[in-house]
């Protein structure tokens, strides 16, 4: 069994909190810039009301909140709410990074906690620390989290308990003293981001490892002619192929989401079976991209996972 890689971060002239925040910003910018990324906004594709530039504005705007999170071990809900408010106040494209923020805040908090003690970390150490932080959330975190949905303009699944459509939900949360982690436990079976919280960021970690390995050998398929764009597109397709994107399930249905994942798997089989790289199947990816854009099917949860994966990879020193 191979040893878990340990990554070292060199201390520079700026505090670690600044380094962590810049990694988060760059992760968000790299993800939205990667193309072709089937169904999602990228440097070549916009939606009618949400443009590539809206995502860039959002990524830049949350810097101070990520920096603050990197210096804190509490107030997860308040920090998520702050980041959402910053994101929507700097652009008019609506919900750009809500799911990513939910993942980045605890990961930034965990990174700050670890690096406050030492200069090295492993990915399991980072995700375990983030998971521990989330298990310690309380009712105040849940209330803060619920209150930011209107700001973000997020579409959610209808549920019987603690429904966001019910104006009495916050009162119910207070009465039952439900923590934010407990809310995610309730949502984990129908929301991919909630599932990441409760599973210990397994998909985020897997995505980071894909990116780190791919960038180490400079290609997601082992050939030396790929680049950072191709690595991110490959990671996106890989995560999408293995997971039902619940952003699609919420907007459409589970069958549609599973069909999109199956399509992504079929594209990747071209790489595995014919030993080619992303560039070689780019026309096929572009065809899938056109189809999803025409049908307004966007794998938003997958994009959030990929942002978190890029973030962890950048923390670990991945460069391009």
UniProtKB/TrEMBL annotation:
Pfam families on file: CitG
InterPro entries: CitG
Domain of life of the source: Archaea
GO function terms (MF aspect): ATP binding; triphosphoribosyl-dephospho-CoA synthase activity
TM ranges: none
Name of this chain's protein: Fumarate hydratase
């Amino acid at each position: 069994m191979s040893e878990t890689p340990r990554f070292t971060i060199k201390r520079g002239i700026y505090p670690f909190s600044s380094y962590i925040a810049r990694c988060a910003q760059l992760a968000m910018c790299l993800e939205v810039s990667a193309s072709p990324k089937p169904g999602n906004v990228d440097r070549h594709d916009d939606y009618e009301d949400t443009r590539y530039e809206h995502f860039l504005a959002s990524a830049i705007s949350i810097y101070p909140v990520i920096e603050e999170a990197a210096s804190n071990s509490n107030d997860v809900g308040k920090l998520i709410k702050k980041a959402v408010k910053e994101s929507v106040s700097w652009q008019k494209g609506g919900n750009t990074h809500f799911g990513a923020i939910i993942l980045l805040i605890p990961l930034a908090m965990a990174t700050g906690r670890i690096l406050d003690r030492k200069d090295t970390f492993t990915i399991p150490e980072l995700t375990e620390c983030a998971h521990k932080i989330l298990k310690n959330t309380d009712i105040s975190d849940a209330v803060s989290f619920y209150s930011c949905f209107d700001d973000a303009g997020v579409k959610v699944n209808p549920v019987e308990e603690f429904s966001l459509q019910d104006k009495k939900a916050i009162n119910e949360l207070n009465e039952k003293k439900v923590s934010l982690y407990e809310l995610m436990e309730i949502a984990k079976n129908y929301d991919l981001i909630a599932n990441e919280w409760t599973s210990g960021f397994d998909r985020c970690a897997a995505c980071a490892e894909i990116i780190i390995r791919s960038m180490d050998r400079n290609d997601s398929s082992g050939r030396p002619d790929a680049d950072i764009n191709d690595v991110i597109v490959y990671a996106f397709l890989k995560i999408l192929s293995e997971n039902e994107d619940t952003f699609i399930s919420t907007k459409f249905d589970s069958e549609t989401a599973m069909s999109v994942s199956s399509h992504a798997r079929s594209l990747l089989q071209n790489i595995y079976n014919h030993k080619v790289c992303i560039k070689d199947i780019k026309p096929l990816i572009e065809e899938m991209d056109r189809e999803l854009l025409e049908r307004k099917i966007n794998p938003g949860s997958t994009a959030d996972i990929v942002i978190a994966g890029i973030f962890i990879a950048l923390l670990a020193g991945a460069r391009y």
